[in-house]
């Protein structure tokens, strides 16, 4: 609605909102959720900002330590690794879909994740199967979720040997 100034009335028309700068938009995006540099660039481009302005915003955010792909990737990997029942392979795919470089993602993988992977696979099995279920179906389910064959064998063997609830 447009306000007009009437005689004797001090109500002036509101100023048009000025468009946010790419830096302001980027800060708003980062305030809602941590982003990779790649995804942040994509979101700013979708909002109609030009490449030069996006580059200046990203440079400033990196300079101020608000944007750091290596740290963000490590934090997100650690969270998913500790809190989810996803396989390491699934976690890696998810992080690469979020725009993190595959090298950064690979650097986050612990050297020995067999025990963690086995526990995650057991959690997956316990949510879907009974210990007496067909082992081939259990193995196929774990395989489809990205678990390694040695982890699959260990998890299915341990789960099948566990008592029924």
UniProtKB/TrEMBL annotation:
A Pfam family: RecX_HTH1
Region: Disordered, residue numbers: 1-20
Keywords on record: Cytoplasm
Matches recorded under InterPro entries: RecX_HTH_1st, Regulatory_RecX, WH-like_DNA-bd_sf
Cell compartments where the protein resides: Cytoplasm
Broad class of the protein's primary localization: cytoplasm
Boundaries of every RecX first three-helical domain copy: 22-61
Protein name stated in the entry: Regulatory protein RecX
Example GO BP: regulation of DNA repair
Protein's organism: Selenomonas montiformis
Family the UniProt entry places it in: Belongs to the RecX family.
């Amino acid at each position: 609605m447009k306000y007009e100034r009437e005689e004797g009335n001090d109500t002036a028309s509101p100023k048009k909102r000025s468009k946010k700068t790419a830096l302001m938009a980027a800060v708003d995006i980062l305030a809602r959720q941590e982003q990779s540099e790649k995804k942040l660039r994509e979101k700013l481009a979708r909002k109609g900002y030009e490449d030069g302005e996006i580059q200046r915003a990203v440079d400033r955010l990196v300079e101020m330590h608000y944007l750091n792909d290596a740290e963000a990737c490590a934090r997100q990997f650690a969270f998913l690794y500790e809190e989810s029942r996803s396989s390491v392979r699934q976690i890696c795919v998810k992080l690469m879909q979020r725009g993190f470089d595959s090298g950064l993602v690979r650097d986050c993988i612990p050297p020995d994740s067999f025990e963690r992977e086995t526990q995650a696979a057991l959690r997956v099995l316990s949510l879907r199967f009974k210990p007496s279920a067909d082992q081939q179906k259990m193995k196929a389910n774990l395989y489809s979720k990205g678990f390694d064959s040695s982890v699959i064998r260990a998890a299915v063997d341990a789960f099948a040997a566990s008592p029924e609830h």
